[in-house]
Design the sequence.
């Protein structure tokens, strides 16, 4: 196995962790929120934060280390051919949405959710933030899926 193969493997593993986690996290957060049970919602929110640190961040690191390492091994000049440039642009756009919108929402929700119990329920403010989180999460997913398309199809 060559260095390129190892780096490509790390890159693909990172993408699997990243896209897999954001998809699964969104699904079970939506289902937890729909229960309107404060204890379940609080646990779901705690898991969103935990999996971001445990899966999304390592996925981002592996995607970048593997991708740029493979790019170096393949002797591409930075930033690379058009398909690679567009992949990087999409990745950065998704990252900016994640850092600028989604993480601040998650932090506010995490603080709010710690106070939820079966008796107190879930506040309207939390539910409004959940709707924003879901919309912006879908928006952030589009450029990631687009980047995946560019990496596989290598158009133009």
Sequence:
């Amino acid at each position: 196995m060559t260095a390129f193969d190892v780096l490509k493997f790390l890159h693909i593993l990172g993408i699997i962790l990243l896209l897999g986690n954001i998809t699964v996290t969104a699904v079970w957060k939506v289902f937890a929120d729909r229960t309107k049970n404060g204890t379940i919602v609080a646990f779901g929110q705690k898991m969103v934060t935990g999996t971001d640190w445990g899966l999304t961040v390592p996925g981002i690191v592996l995607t970048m280390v593997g991708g740029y390492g493979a790019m170096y091994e393949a002797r591409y000049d930075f930033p690379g051919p058009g398909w690679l440039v567009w992949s990087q642009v999409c990745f950065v756009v998704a990252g900016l949405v994640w850092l600028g919108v989604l993480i601040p929402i998650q932090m506010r929700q995490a603080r709010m959710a710690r106070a939820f119990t079966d008796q107190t329920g879930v506040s309207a403010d939390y539910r409004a933030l959940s709707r924003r989180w879901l919309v912006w999460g879908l928006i952030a997913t589009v450029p990631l899926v687009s980047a995946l398309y560019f990496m596989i199809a290598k158009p133009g």
